[in-house]
Amino acid sequence: MRISLKSWLSHVAAGLVAVCLASSFALGAGKPHYVITNDDVPPALATSVTFYTVAADGLLTKKAKVLTGEGGIAGGYFAANRVNVLNSGNQECAYISVAQSGEIEGISVKTLKIGGHAVGSLKDTGASNGVGLAMNAQYLYASFTDSSNIGTFQVLPGCGLTFVGDTTVAGLHGGVVDGMAIHGNIMVVTYGDRSIESFNISAGMPVSNGDEQNSTGSRGGNTYPTGVDITQDGHYAIFGDTSPFTVVEVSDISSGKLTPTVVYRLGRNLNSSNILLSPDESLLYISNNQEGSITAAFFDKSTGKLSKGCVSHSLKGFVSKWSYLASLALQKTTGTGGKLYVAEYGAPSSIGILNVTSAGGKCTLTESSGSPVADPNSPGLLSIGAFPPRPF
User: Fold this and answer.
1) Any idea what the CATH number is for the domain that residue 348 is in?
2) Which terminus of the chain has a smaller tally of CB atoms within 10 A, N or C?
3) Could you list the residue range(s) of the whole structural domain that residue 256 is in?
């Protein structure tokens, strides 16, 4: 699923109510704690990244705005993560993509200054639908939606990057990469055209595992995978679908390849393009992008099965101040993750904050009294991240 600034404005005018990777450990003493936004500001104004400090109670305070050049688009694919965070050894970095130029900036979390800059080949840009990011401690991967390339970049000290090369990819129906997730030597991607595929990244650059396929849920014609997450043990790939309902699909990837997805219909709320597993993998958080609400489903990490959990009310300001929910981030790196943060796409945008409870097979999602927090630097917020990130 994609969104543009123009479509958001028309949505509000009509009043429609219809729309990291990184290795990490638990919060350590002295580590900064941030929620990070890719503000995605269109030319001719400079685009930026905004850092918010996270208080002990989970509330956010704007800390710094870091300029990252020009060329945002205030839109694109919901599931293309434009913020990725690395917490490995001495590397504490936030990586940000700039859509129109295809540039990737590495920002030091310690100094809040740019430490690295890289571009791919000449055609590697994302003016159409943005540039998504996924990474491990050695490599960062960028999905360039204009060229249909996955660019591979080696991670250097000081949040630096160097371009290694491109892998040209395509969905079974001509789609370009939408969502990406990696675990160990496997990368799993969605194409936004019903198809999914996995790649072996043991040598750095992605090599197809020869398992490209249409998802099971897409056979009905009105749902297709966009977001993707992978369990901590690498056993399951989980897909959030663009759909008239809340639909999630799960593939067993323990063999190193995708297997046919199992479909879970988890509610009637509109759309489920962005997903995020809790650190303990007991809950799967789902953005009901076009409903303005969040769903939490129970996940059994031993079997890969999902079951219905709880749904929030539409968050404050839906339709009147913002029109879509997008990516998710968490306050904590343990348990169910503490507070849940969600990007609210508007002009200007904001970050919603939800309280989560889960016990005895029941859960609740309620909006915090301190929600939302304004992001005045963004006219179209789709991607947020947290530092320190989830441990997988």
Assistant:
1) 2.130.10.10
2) C
3) 2-387
